[in-house]
Amino acid sequence: MRPWDQGELSPKSKSSEDYLNETATEVEQVFNALKPLPSPEFMLGSWNCGVVETGHPGGKALKETEWAGRDVRGINDVDPIMCVDGESKRYWNEGWGHASLREMVFRGKASVALIYDSFPICEHFRYVSEDLVMEAMDAPKLMPPESTLYTYLIRRK
Question: Which H or E run includes 3?
Answer without folding.
Answer: helix 3-6
